[in-house]
Design a protein that fits this description.
By secondary structure, this protein is α+β, with helices and mostly antiparallel strands. It contains three helices and nine strands. Helices cover 17% and strands 40% of the residues.
Length: 175
């Protein structure tokens, strides 16, 4: 390579490199969005399916039944509240639906962020503010994101074996 070509390249590249070293202000640090922020709010039931886990594992049909239009489930609303620093506080169930889990109490999650291994987050329900008396768990099967919808699963077991589960499909009433 000729000396003249080297000089031209040097004169062209050095100003670009120096400009790249300029420190740019990119704003203040913003904390990542937690699962708490995505799950909090007023959730209206859009469908509820009861799944017979025993029939499903045996390959028997029907193994699923929609309960949405029955027993007042069409009025079901789940409210998950946060405090001023986006930490979970109380939850409550409103409407005329039968009580499948405690209608009011306190909640938290097993993790504030999605798991890297794809494990579904679990909403843990408690009777007391100290979160020492668990009263249930709801597995988050679908986390709200691009759409304001969420799916929860409540599973009943006997001797550690699931026999029935309830699949709640919910829509955020104020996204």
């Amino acid at each position: 390579m000729s000396t003249r070509l080297r000089t031209v390249l040097f004169c062209a590249v050095v100003p670009i490199l120096l400009a790249a070293c300029k420190k740019l202000e990119n704003g203040t640090h913003v904390a990542p969005v937690t699962l708490y922020e995505k799950l909090a709010g007023n959730w209206l039931l859009t469908d509820l399916k009861q799944v017979d886990e025993t029939a499903k594992s045996a390959g028997l049909k029907p193994d699923e039944l929609s309960l949405y239009d029955q027993f007042g489930f069409g009025t079901f609303r789940l409210v998950l509240d946060l405090d001023a620093v986006d930490q979970p506080t109380v939850y409550r169930v409103e409407g005329e639906a039968p009580e499948l889990f405690a209608k009011a109490g306190f909640w938290d999650l097993d993790s504030s962020f999605p798991a890297a291994d794809g494990k579904t987050p679990t909403i843990r329900l408690y009777a007391d503010a100290d979160r020492k008396t668990p009263v249930g768990q709801l597995h988050v099967m679908s986390v709200p994101g691009a759409t304001p919808n969420m799916e929860l699963k409540l599973t009943r077991t006997s001797g550690g074996v699931p026999f029935v589960s309830y699949h709640y499909q919910l829509s955020n009433s104020n996204p």
